[in-house]
Amino acid sequence: MNEKKTTKLLGIPEGADMLGLKPATLRDWVWRRRIEFVRVGRCIRFREGALHAVIERGTVPARRDAQ
To answer: I need a surface site. Which of 8, 38, 46, 59 has the fewest CB within 10 A?
Structure first.
C-alpha cells in the first residue's frame, strides 16, 4: 500500500515568523535560492521540516569550557 506523506506547508509570513525573520528577508532567500521552497502555482510555500533544517544547520553548539 502506498502511504501519502502529509506535510504542512507554510506561506512566507508564517515561515518568516518561525525563523524570526522579516518576510522580505525570506523572499530574498527564495530569490537567491538559499532556502528550499515549494512552488504551488505562483505561490511560494515552505515545508515545515525544511524550516526546521535551516534552524538545525544554523545551530552552533556551546563550548564545553565556556563558563
So the answer is: 59
Q: At what angle do helices 12-19 and 48-58 cross, to 10 degrees?
A: 30
- The answer to whether residues 13 and 46 touch, using CB atoms and an 8 Å cutoff, is no
16: its cell numbers: 518568516
Identify the helix (H) or strand (E) that includes residue 38: strand 38-40
pLDDT higher than 90, residue 67: no
End-to-end CA distance of the chain: 54
C-alpha cell belonging to residue 36: 528550499
In 3-state terms the chain splits into helix, strand, coil percentages (rounded to 5) of 40, 15, 45
